[in-house]
């Protein structure tokens, strides 16, 4: 009997989506130390050039407050780059003058790909999309070749892109599942953790989008329904993501309730807008 994870990885589009998310994590991991060091330099520069800041007591909140302005939506509560995801880290590199040596267009291209990944309704991308995405990542990493971690990440990302992640079932228990990764083995738990982090980020993106809406749009309802159907087939994920799902369903209920109120005020007459739920 195949585990839920091995069944999911048999879907080529979904597997490509997970690979793309895995690569995002590799970018974050390889640049994190460097970015934290550079932010510390930036922080010291601000203190040395600003007499007002020098007169204030610098506490643990100083650096996070200084970098918060560069954080994308959903990251405002992050207490520093070490607690941010790949999107926030890339956003920081893109806008902060401390990283002016980086060609911004290369960062923007990867950010755009990341956004496409998070807005994929079915959590699926084509082999062609993944190939183009990997090339953009490798081009960006060339800007950081003076960092040993970036060189190592370059090799790992290329391995991820070329691997088929062959699934071998060694027992009836999902714990016994072995995932072949080129000539090495990656623990099934590691792949699941990558998958879980990516799905949580996808859900957060959807929640942020819904919070900005006054009514459910057809595309968002489609995303919700597709995701619900996906979780019906994957009970373990549904269980682990329980708290996030409650937040998502609360937003859905709130938006649907708002739409019903608007209809009642209009007397139930008139054709709804094309993109809104009928």
Give an account of the 3D structure:
The protein is mostly helical and 278 residues long. It folds into 2 domains: 4-186, no CATH class; 213-265. 65% of the residues lie in helices and 4% in strands. The chain has helices at residues 4-9, 12-49, 51-55, 62-68, 86-95, 104-118, 127-141, 148-162, 188-211, 218-232, 235-240, 242-265; strands at 166-168, 178-181, 184-187. A hairpin with a 2-residue loop joins strand 2 and strand 3 (184-187). Helix 7 (127-141) packs antiparallel against helix 8 and helix 9 (188-211) runs parallel beside helix 12 (242-265). Mean pLDDT is 79; it is low at 59-67 and 269-278.
Descriptive labels:
278 residues; mainly alpha; 12 helices; 3 strands; 65% helix
Unreliable stretches: 59-67, 269-278
Q: Which structural class should the secondary elements be placed in?
A: mainly alpha
Based on CA atoms alone, the radius of gyration comes out at 22 Å
Output the number of helix runs.
12
What is the total tally of β strands?
Answer: 3
How far the N terminus sits from the C terminus, by CA atoms, comes to 42 Å
Number of domains: 2
Shape: globular
In short:
This protein has helices at residues 4-9, 12-49, 51-55, 62-68, 86-95, 104-118, 127-141, 148-162, 188-211, 218-232, 235-240, 242-265, and strands at 166-168, 178-181, 184-187. It is mostly helical. It folds into two domains: 4-186, no CATH class; 213-265.
């Amino acid at each position: 009997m195949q585990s839920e994870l091995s069944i999911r990885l048999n879907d080529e589009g979904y597997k490509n989506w997970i690979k793309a998310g895995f690569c995002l994590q590799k970018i974050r991991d390889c640049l994190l130390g460097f970015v934290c060091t550079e932010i510390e330099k930036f922080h010291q520069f601000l203190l040395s050039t600003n007499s007002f800041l020098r007169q204030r007591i610098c506490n643990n909140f100083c650096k996070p407050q200084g970098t918060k302005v560069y954080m994308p939506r959903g990251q405002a509560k992050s207490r520093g780059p070490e607690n941010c995801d790949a999107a926030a880290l890339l956003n920081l590199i893109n806008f902060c003058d401390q990283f002016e040596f980086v060609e911004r267009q290369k960062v923007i291209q990867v950010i755009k790909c990341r956004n496409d990944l998070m807005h994929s309704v079915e959590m699926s991308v084509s082999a062609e999309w993944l190939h183009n995405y990997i090339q953009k990542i490798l081009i960006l990493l060339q800007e950081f070749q003076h960092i040993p971690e970036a060189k190592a990440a370059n090799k790992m990302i290329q391995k991820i892109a070329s691997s088929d992640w062959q699934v071998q079932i060694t027992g009836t228990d999902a714990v016994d599942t072995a995932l072949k990764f080129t000539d090495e083995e990656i623990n099934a738990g590691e792949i699941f953790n990558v998958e879980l982090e990516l799905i949580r980020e996808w859900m957060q993106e959807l929640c942020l989008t819904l919070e900005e809406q006054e009514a459910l749009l057809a595309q968002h309802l489609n995303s919700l329904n597709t995701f619900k159907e996906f979780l019906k087939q994957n009970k373990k994920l549904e269980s682990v993501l329980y708290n996030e799902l409650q937040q998502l369903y609360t937003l859905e209920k709130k938006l649907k309730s708002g739409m019903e109120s608007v209809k009642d005020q209009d007397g139930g007459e008139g054709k709804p807008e094309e993109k809104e739920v009928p």
